[in-house]
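Let us work through a complete example step by step.
Step 1: write down the sequence.
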Amino acid sequence: MKRILLFLATNLAVMLVLGIASSVLGLNRYLDAQGLHLGTLLLFSLFMGFTGAIISLLMSKPMAKWSTGAQVINGSTDPMHRWLEGTVARFAEKAGIDMPEVAVYDGEPNAFATGAFRNSALVAVSTGLLQSMNREEVEAVIGHEIAHVANGDMVTMTLIQGVLNTFVVFISRVVGYVVDRVILKNDKDAPGLGYMATTVVMDLLLGVLASVIVAWFSRQREFRADAGAAQLMGDRRPMMHALARLGGIAPGELPRSMAAMGISGHPSGLMALFSSHPPIEERIRALQDARA
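Step 2: predict the structure and record it as tokens.
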């Protein structure tokens, strides 16, 4: 879950900065007394949507290291670190990708993979994961993360986020124009307060809807990564055991700002729509139902 939340948070921050910069520099000149220029607005929306997503992708590795305190262990002489690095190297070779950076960070049981490119990724595991699982289960988790990298999930998510960002920017400004010029009858050259207020509200509402769509896609990626881990190990049982172990772990108290990142959370109702991971039971069932 850390991988997805870091991506979304960075993307949101970049979008906000780009929006403010474009207003200050006067780059968003798609609205004047003659009306809304849809072609110009579409180009502006594409720029805003994909620039934010791409920058957040390029920042994903350093942001992940900074936010989790992950320490890269490649070349370490510690026996546990050497085993982790060897496991990642074995799975990376089998998956057909270059050796990722391997990192360990202090925290509750969790793991993530990130990076802008398949051949320069980062795979990180927490000390809590290493302490709560046996080696076969840790291998399954590593296989899951390597599968994410091999599947190009971060790049695919960037494209989806970019498309959704584009629609959010475009639609919110069209609605803002209708409210400002048609409903509130603003006939000035510059957009009025109605336009500004409406675009902010629509950005928020459509941004929530976009987050639901991204979360749904992320849940589908988790099923595929579970299957990828089973394939890399040549057996579904270790991944099933690792998932069962995660489902039974009671996490320690987390700061409120980090609570949503807990791997063993069980969101229900509307909050389940925003979950980046499916319920553990569904993931185990999918592996059980998969062909041998």
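Step 3: interpret the result. Residues 250-265 have pLDDT under 50 and may be disordered.
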